[in-house]
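Minutes, project check-in
Item: structure for the 423-residue chain
Input as provided by the requester:
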Amino acid sequence: MFRRRPGHRRLLPRLYPVEGRRLPRELRPANVGRLAASLPDGLGDPGFAELLQKIDDGPILAGNRVEPFFRGDRAFAAMCTDIGLAQSEILLESYILKDDKTGRGFLEALAAARSRGVTVRVLADFFGSIATRRAFWNEMRARGLDVRLFNPLFPQLWLQPFRDHRKILVVDRRIAYTGGMNIADEYGSAPLGSRRGPWRDTHARIEGPTAWDMAVVFREAWQWAGGDRFELPPIVAPTDGGTKVLTLESRPGRGHGETASTLVAIAGAARRRLWITNAYFAPRRRALDFLEAAVRRGVDVRLLLPGRTDVRLVRHAGHGYFEDLLARGVRIFEYQAAILHAKTLVADDRVCLVGSTNLDFRSFHFNAECNVVILDEGVGGVFSRAFEEDLAQAAEITAAGWRRRSFFHAAADAGARLLAPLL
């Protein structure tokens, strides 16, 4: 029996926002930025957290401990350590899960947990993991792992635009990981200097009630893929203390508008700086207006985007916006040291976001995504320092330099920008 204790709340296993919910007009992206900008103390104002909860319709959970990872090898090592300590359940969801050194390492760690009696559920996206051989999935199953592929090609051909782009690991509903890292060598195990890696990405380990919340998110996609409906009893969580985290997740028909409004609210409430890192940047045009509004308030707005990419067409589509962004006062940097795959945001050292959502049409219309908004100055400071370190390995794009790019480059940018809604 669950009893509500002073300073605690009882949480039911439900997803936010509910399917079919319509955002109130004042909370939609076109309007919520003005509400956020009117907060007296910006991101530090008590009204900001209240605004986020109104947008998402879900709780911001206290009592968490958050540890960011900016290197894949360290993230994967920590994940496998926690898998090795699992006592009852492991939930793993990944857009890409490869049969390579990294994927094999996870298979062995998961199989060892299963041999100890731990329940292990593995969900991978069919299209994202299309290069992974069937034999790999069969080996997982033979070793006792419950494996599902999200939206296989032929049984659900009409659903192919709908992809599971989330990256989630939940251990014992007590520890969770999420961010931009898929389970593959290029995210951390590829040799330094190799053509394909290691990529620059960001993940976060979260210990606390948010891990239970992310198990709720996992269950939705798991059941969509034909998995069993496992039980998630309610929990009692603290209302204060530790790090506060909002789980921001979406899929077609639910949550994409709330994700967009949350990003606009953060931009609107920022007072000093808004630093965004994103791997695939091909936004709607109105996104430029929100960034310009922040610049006009004196906010230092910077975009860190890939200088090297695995999808050149999307990079060209992003280039199609550069001239306009620069004219609006946004500073743009392209990361040179490796392929940039991270999707993060940090504002005023107070609020940061990490997850799987790219600033492109697909992430806001066709993908299931998962992000966490972290309200903590200590964690925000870590993200800000990481951004500054990345800038040291990036080249700034200036208006004068951009105008000197070749005719063929400019033509490719213009053409790709027209295709942005299809990418």
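Outcome recorded: Residues 209-224 form the longest helix (16 residues).
No further action items on this chain.
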